[in-house]
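Quick one, T. Sequence first:
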Amino acid sequence: MLPARHRLRRAVDFRTTSRAARAGRSALVVHLAAGSEAAARSQAPPQVGFTVGRGVGNSVVRHRVSRRLREAVRPLIAELPAGARIVVRALPDAATTPMVELRRQFESAVGSLLARRVR
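Structure tokens:
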């Protein structure tokens, strides 16, 4: 479980973040909101939320994917910019993707989103 201060919980936060910049990989899509709204929240810790839809599998598979995604993101949360909001949406391939690959795909997607933001 991620610490409470790093969890994205409100539906409105999921909606606004899901409309932000995104980067897709084979097993997941990462949405990052770190624009002017996040600048105002710069002292806030980064927050991450996960969505795993029915297309990924049945309830057991979806919950397993959620746990694996949380574990993939946990060690990287300290490296995220303050005030950033991230939504990780699992794709059907996430059910069979190894944990190391999920972490690599998350790092890659966030890295490309942050590089776009810096330019």
